[in-house]
Specification:
Layout (H helix, E strand, L loop, with lengths): L1 E6 L6 H12 L4 E8 L2 H9 L14 E7 L2 H16 L17 H7 L5 E4 L3 H13 L3 E4 L6 H13 L4 E2 L5 E4 L2 E4 L9 E5 L2 H13 L4 E6 L12 H11 L6 E6 L4 H14 L3 E5 L11 E3 L3 H12 L4 H9 L1 H12 L5 E6 L2 H13 L5 E2 L19 E4 L3 H4 L10 H11 L4 E9 L8 H16 L4 E7 L8 H10 L3 E3 L2 H11 L3
Parallel strand pairs: 4-5, 5-6, 9-10, 9-11, 11-12, 12-13, 14-16, 14-17, 15-16, 17-18, 18-19
Antiparallel strand pairs: 1-3, 2-3, 7-8
Helix pairs in contact: 1-3, 5-6, 7-10, 8-9, 10-11, 12-18, 13-18, 15-16, 16-17
């Protein structure tokens, strides 16, 4: 049995909704529950989970509570509990006597007068105006929120630029300031590298791969993916590049992201060439260019980190690339050991740039893919919940995060999709990322390993599971522990996202 109730004009943050749903799922007789805002994407997700959403008229401003259970009394109890938890979350700690928590921007600045950066994570429709208020008060802004209109982003960045401030975002998931993490970021050493990234997981992957090569990062400036598009003109990217080029502590500059507009890329290249500082461009799938030392052009994230690490250590970038290329034979051998498969690849990603890179790596091996975030527009899926042929899905896209927690924090839906893909008899390889670090799920490997184990009951040994872990030894989740958990479930874990994607390509019998 199931029950769906709508609470009108009630917005709740995604963390609260996730925690309430988890508590409901612990109740005796409850088989499934979901608390989401009433977006079209969430309608589709509820329907895919077995809920009947016909006749539901919730809007994105309305909360939907959906529960499945054994009988009416179970449903009544679950709905009552959900409302009680929303009104007064039991996991929130009471304030101790004497604590003062400002409830406004002015109140916070009164307490902390020397603040110079604000981190904003509210619903997109409110985020733009709040960011403008922060800029007016002389604050740089990390705009974690997504679903901010493009016109608002342009207005914010132009206003900030006039005041000598940065707007990092919207949809900026990662920032590193003097080695300190904001948002999703990893516990890596501090060093002489500065990164400017129009990609959150792109920044994380390069940050981690540098650390594994013994090189630290001082600053990592996220810009938001749209910043390098022609409409925005790279306002934040260009400002950040100028700042890092003029910073004597930064010995090597890295610029990462999806391909920018040509005019934006040309401006960045001009700045870097005139500075003479060793720099690496890692525009994933960007226009192929030859290196013009001290500027080096890379097409994959691990390659970008590999070359940047060599420059930082005074080593030969060509030799570093050669060593990386030599690993391909090992991946081919590993594919033979695992066993070639006949069928389709399905990629289930939480990182947008990792999803994009996977598509490009597979394309370079002759495998055309469909996606909800494709690098080729004609390969866009009509329905992200109904993948076809070889499909690589980004579950961090806006369609899945409106009123829901980001999949790097809540893996519930991605695990459900893994089980669904295992039920497709044409699927033979499942490829996924596992992102560690601050802000991420405390134990993602266990959740995904459980899903893999459960899926084998449906697919047997038909499917080969391949993953990469974007994480470092000092991350709170414990990198080695996470790796062992996945491997114990029979997942082939690779050293990078590019290598995992390449192994997935080698696994297909062709």
């Amino acid at each position: 049995m199931q029950r769906i109730e709508i609470i009108r004009s009630s917005y709740y943050d995604s963390v609260t909704l996730m925690l309430v749903a988890k508590e409901l799922n612990k109740l005796a007789g409850v088989t499934s529950s979901s608390l989401v805002m009433g977006t079209e994407a969430n309608y589709n997700i509820l329907a895919s989970g077995g809920f009947d959403v016909d006749g539901i008229d919730a809007t994105p401003n309305d909360l939907i509570i959906a529960v499945m259970g054994e009988d009416e009394s179970v449903l009544d109890g679950a709905l009552k509990t959900a409302k009680e938890y929303i009104a007064s979350p039991p996991w929130k700690k009471e304030m101790s006597a004497g604590d003062y928590r400002p409830k406004s921007l002015d109140g916070a600045l009164a307490v902390q007068k020397d603040s110079n950066i604000a981190v904003i994570s509210v619903a997109g429709r409110y985020a733009g105006d709040l960011a403008m208020d922060c800029i007016g008060k002389g604050l740089n802004v990390m705009l974690f929120s997504d679903n901010v209109p493009l016109e608002k982003e342009i207005e914010l960045k132009r206003t900030a630029s006039e005041k000598g401030l940065l707007v990092m975002g919207p949809d900026c998931g990662t920032v590193i300031i003097r080695g300190k993490a904001l948002g999703f970021a990893n516990a890596c050493p501090v060093g002489p590298v500065g990164i400017v990234a129009a990609a959150g997981t792109g920044l994380q992957e390069v940050h981690v791969q540098l650390a594994r090569r013994g090189v630290g990062t001082l600053h990592g400036i996220g810009t938001g993916g749209r910043d390098v598009k022609a409409e925005v003109g790279g306002i934040t990217t260009l400002t950040a590049v100028k700042e890092l080029l003029s910073d004597d502590e930064i010995e090597t500059l890295v610029v990462v992201g999806k391909p920018p507009a040509k005019e934006v890329e040309d401006k960045i290249l001009d700045l870097v060439k005139r500075s003479g500082k060793p720099s690496v461009f890692g525009f994933i799938g960007g226009q192929t260019r030859c290196d013009e030392p001290p500027v080096y052009i890379c097409s994959e994230l691990e390659e970008t980190a590999c070359v940047a690490a060599a420059l930082a250590k005074g080593e030969d970038p060509a030799m570093a690339r050669s060593d990386l290329k030599a690993k391909e034979q090992g991946l081919k051998n590993r594919a033979e050991e695992i066993g070639r498969r006949k069928g389709y690849i399905r990629g289930l990603f939480s990182g947008g740039t990792l999803c994009y890179e996977a598509q490009l790596v597979l394309a370079n091996h002759g495998i055309d893919t469909w996606s909800n975030a494709p690098f080729s527009k004609e390969k866009k899926l009509e329905n992200s919940l109904k993948p076809v042929a070889h499909s690589i899905i980004d579950y961090g896209e806006d369609e899945f995060t409106q009123g829901r927690l980001h999949p790097m924090m809540d893996l519930t839906f991605r695990c459900e999709r893994l089980l669904a893909e295992a039920s497709d008899p044409e699927v033979s390889v499942v490829l996924f990322d596992v992102v560690l670090g601050y802000g991420c799920n405390p134990d993602p490997a266990s959740l995904l390993a459980d899903a893999v184990t459960a899926s084998r009951g449906r697919s047997g040994d038909r499917i080969a599971y391949v993953a990469s872990i974007c994480g470092f030894d000092d991350d709170p989740q414990d990198f080695e522990k996470q790796k062992k958990i996945l491997e114990s479930a029979g997942v082939a874990v690779c050293e990078s996202n590019a290598q995992a994607s390449r192994l997935a390509a080698f696994l297909l019998a062709r």
